[in-house]
Amino acid sequence: MSAPPPFIRVEWHPRVKSAYPQLVMVIAKFTGINAEKRFDEIGRLEAEAFEEIKGKYTLESLKHDPVVRAYRDFYWRLSIDPTKQRPASEALIRRVLGDGSIWRINKFVNSYNLASAITGVTLGAYDINRIRGSLMVRFAGLGELFQGIGMPSPKPLNGNEIVVSDEEGIVSIYPYRDSERTKITEDTREAILVAYGVPGVPVSLLEEAVKVTDRIARAASAGRLESYFTSKP
User: Quick check: pTM over 0.90?
Assistant: First the structure.
């Protein structure tokens, strides 16, 4: 029996294919999303996970971890200083190692943030009902506007960024900032979770990050994994 078609179409622009042929994303569909701002179950799960993270890393050793190093190296290739704009997964790990906490957003977002801190993989999630048409991985246009989560207004991009876009505009800047337009809210019922790969991060680890998200989300009654697929240039 043939596999069912992916739940969303993903295309890679030829320029991205040529410049970054080793990129890969694992894209998952989660259903039954619960994005309430209640953290009882998540708090219990965090306590266990934080002990695991503190046993795996120190602030000094973190920068030498091969997965952290891979994301940092990719940031440098994009002309982003990773010591000033931390890769999302590294920023989460540093929060755990520092004050023993991560940002409280909502049940589902905190589920995948915790999975990101455990695995070191950068993850982003988007409300399926806010995505228009298929996704395209491409370079941003010079001066193209992007409004990330928490930004008061759109800002122009310099054209060096790799972005994931739909028919209405940018959904995320690969692999570090998500759009205000497609973010997870309390109205979200189905979501796309993207595990962003960079050279040096194996696909198996991206898949593991999706599965860890599923385990945490189920335990927190925040959602469940329906299916996933891998997309490459």
Answer: yes
